[in-house]
Task: inverse folding
């Protein structure tokens, strides 16, 4: 090889040796740095407090928002929480021998906005007549619950239901078990099948349950029971949430199943930023989802409390404002003040929503788990309910017409009527959903009559009781009602009517149906803490005292006003 090429060969060898040296040098430096860093870290060992299993710092995870306990009156005020009453067949014979102290309190509001009513509810064991009515009402659900899905028909043989009527079925099942008409295996079988079906229902556009479902197939349908989706109802969902909370609190072994149902739902559009309840429908021309405020005085506040029981804060939906009053037989009857011509929703005043609040929630706030039976922490609701009762008794005393007004189904067209205390500017107005005046459909509603009897122990409700307690068909359940103008029975059978009748009878035995939650944490509040799904679906955190809904009627009203 020529001499001139030797420097090149030497240069390549030299480069290789140089690269190897640099690699060793850098490796040594890195090792030296790591050893130094380790020694510095270990030198600080005394300042590090490791967390060992079983140590004092095991409570640190409880600081996570999801593991905080829900703030209730018993927790914040140190009051004893109410306890779940025993089933009727497990009550000792002297269970009701203690004198009833519900009538010896001065009527009116206290400093927190709670209210003491002038009326007392009925309490005691069921009589033979009442037990027979309970068995007949439960027979409706035995006959009209579908074996394939566990869903109960809303109306007799018609295989369709809503979430509202599904809640009425749950109410009926709870009452049937607590009144000892069925035993635990039957109750568990029914509730497990029903909740499994509800969890598997196809939701309206992946948000919330559709307004209507076919009970045999569980498929989404429209109001004619044909396949399709038509939106969701915030009021129906609110009622369902009330009964999901009742089930979970009374029967903790069903709690995880209940949570799994609700954790499939997306609540991002059902409550707006101001705390109003929003329903939805499908625009017929564009096919787009339209969200609209839903609910009027009476139903709106009841549904709002259903959401609040799960940690949501529907602030404006729970407030009575805006409302007006109409003077009827000396009673200032409250009605929703929103103009139907502008808001395109009627302001029906009926009995049912106040009954449900009283029977199920005791006219109490969602966070109240400790107040005595004679004190109603959602004070204005209790006071308004007394007005709704009083005006109906006054009408009977002035005119002789037995009065227990509520919306109800009828046999044949128009199939459904709003039998109101007040609507469209008129008292005792009976109208169809499209506003047609149908006075011949005015009736004593069975559910309203027995609900009034349960919550108002008076001579007048004794009259209502005698009118409807044996208004039944042993094969189908309790009739919907008794026509006011002498046309006989409202010859139709529904889940809502029979469910509320069972609820009324259960209230006589056990009082307020919602019982306190007995656990510490809930999957509802801890699930998906490591994901953004909680924020996307608007799942709430465990409510603390500052999250409580105020028991106020007006936006300008302050607690110290009472």
Result:
């Amino acid at each position: 090889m020529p001499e001139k090429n030797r420097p090149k060969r030497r240069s390549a060898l030299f480069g290789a040796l140089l690269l190897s040296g640099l690699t060793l040098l850098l490796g040594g430096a890195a090792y030296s740095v790591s050893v130094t860093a380790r020694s510095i870290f270990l030198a600080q060992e005394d300042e590090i407090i490791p967390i060992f299993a079983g140590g004092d710092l095991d409570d640190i995870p409880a600081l996570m928002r999801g593991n905080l306990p829900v703030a209730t009156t018993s927790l914040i005020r140190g009051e004893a929480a109410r306890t779940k009453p025993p089933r009727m067949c497990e009550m000792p014979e002297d269970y009701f021998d203690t004198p009833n102290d519900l009538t010896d309190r001065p009527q009116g509001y206290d400093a927190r906005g709670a209210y003491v009513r002038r009326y007392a509810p009925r309490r005691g064991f069921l009589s033979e007549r009442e037990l027979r009515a309970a068995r007949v009402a439960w027979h409706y659900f035995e006959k009209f619950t579908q074996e394939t899905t566990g869903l109960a028909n809303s109306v007799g043989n018609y295989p369709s239901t809503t979430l509202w009527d599904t809640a009425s079925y749950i109410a009926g099942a709870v009452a049937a078990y607590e009144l000892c008409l069925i035993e635990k295996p039957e109750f568990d079988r029914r509730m497990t099948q029903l909740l499994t079906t509800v969890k598997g229902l196809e939701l309206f556009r992946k948000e919330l349950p559709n307004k209507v479902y076919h009970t045999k197939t569980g498929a989404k349908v429209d109001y004619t029971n044909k396949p399709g989706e038509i939106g969701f109802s915030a009021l129906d969902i609110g009622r369902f949430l009330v009964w999901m909370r009742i089930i979970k609190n009374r029967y903790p072994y069903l709690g995880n199943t209940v949570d799994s149902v609700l954790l499939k739902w997306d609540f991002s559009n059902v409550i707006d930023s101001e705390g109003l309840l929003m329903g939805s429908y499908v625009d017929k021309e564009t096919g787009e989802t339209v969200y609209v405020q839903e609910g009027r005085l009476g139903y709106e506040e009841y549904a709002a409390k259903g959401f609040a029981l799960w940690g949501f804060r529907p602030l404006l939906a729970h407030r009575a404002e805006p409302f007006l009053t109409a003077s009827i037989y000396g009673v200032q009857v409250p009605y929703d003040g929103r103009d139907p011509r502008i808001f395109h929703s009627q302001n029906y005043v009926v009995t049912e929503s106040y009954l449900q609040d009283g029977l199920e929630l005791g006219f109490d706030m969602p966070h109240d788990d400790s107040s005595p039976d004679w004190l109603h922490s959602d004070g204005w609701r209790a006071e308004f309910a007394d007005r709704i009762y009083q005006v109906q008794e006054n009408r009977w005393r002035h005119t002789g017409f037995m009065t227990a007004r509520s919306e109800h189904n009828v046999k044949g067209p128009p199939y459904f009527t709003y039998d109101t205390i007040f609507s469209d500017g008129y008292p005792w107005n009976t109208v169809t959903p499209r506003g047609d005046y149908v006075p011949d459909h005015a009736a004593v509603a069975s559910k309203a009559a027995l609900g009034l009897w349960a919550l108002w122990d008076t001579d007048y409700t004794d009259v209502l009781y005698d009118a409807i307690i044996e208004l039944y068909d042993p094969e189908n359940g309790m009739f919907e009602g008794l026509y006011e103008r002498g046309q006989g029975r409202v010859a139709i059978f529904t889940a809502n009517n029979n469910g509320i009748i069972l609820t009324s009878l259960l209230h006589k035995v056990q009082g307020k149906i919602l019982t306190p939650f007995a656990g510490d944490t809930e999957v509802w509040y801890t699930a998906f803490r490591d994901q953004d799904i909680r924020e996307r679906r608007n799942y709430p955190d465990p409510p603390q005292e500052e999250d409580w809904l105020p028991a106020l009627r007006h936006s300008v009203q302050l607690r110290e006003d009472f």
Remarks:
- The two ends are 112 Å apart (CA to CA).
